[in-house]
What does this fold into?
Amino acid sequence: METQISLAGNVGTDVEFSSGPGWNLARFRIATTPGWRKGGEWVSGETLWMSVRASGQTAVNVRDSVHKGDPLVVVGRLRHRVWQGTDGQRKEADQIEAAALGHDMARGVSTFVRPDRAPFSFDDEPLVPDDISVEPCEASHDVEPSDLDADDVADGLEDTSLV
It folds into this structure.
């Protein structure tokens, strides 16, 4: 069973983007702080920091659209990641694998721009040796933790000092 989550908050870090043959990955952290009225004034609760990652074409769109400080709404799957750090210690982190993201228009305005896509040509030859089989990659390709080294997965997940 999948654990779906939606979160509205502010982007707390610059977007980190990486890519390789057939995959794109964008990562950033989002912060959300609950608030309520107590007496005649607003009171803020404890800030929750969550790591967000997007893959495929979504990662490219995140790279080109999301900036530190932006109010954002993220919808996706909640994932619990476990890995061994370079120091040999077990590391754990929760993160959202984003399915949809958008600027929070309850807090401002946004303009949508559909990017041009390069036309696909059957005449294009893969840039790999003939003895290697290449299969087409879909835009929603998910990068597995095994595709990244432990430092890549760990980057940005543990630092909660971004206030």
In short: Strands lie at 4-11, 16-20, 23-32, 35-38, 41-44, 48-55, 71-84, 90-103. The chain has two helices and eight strands. The longest strand covers residues 71-84.
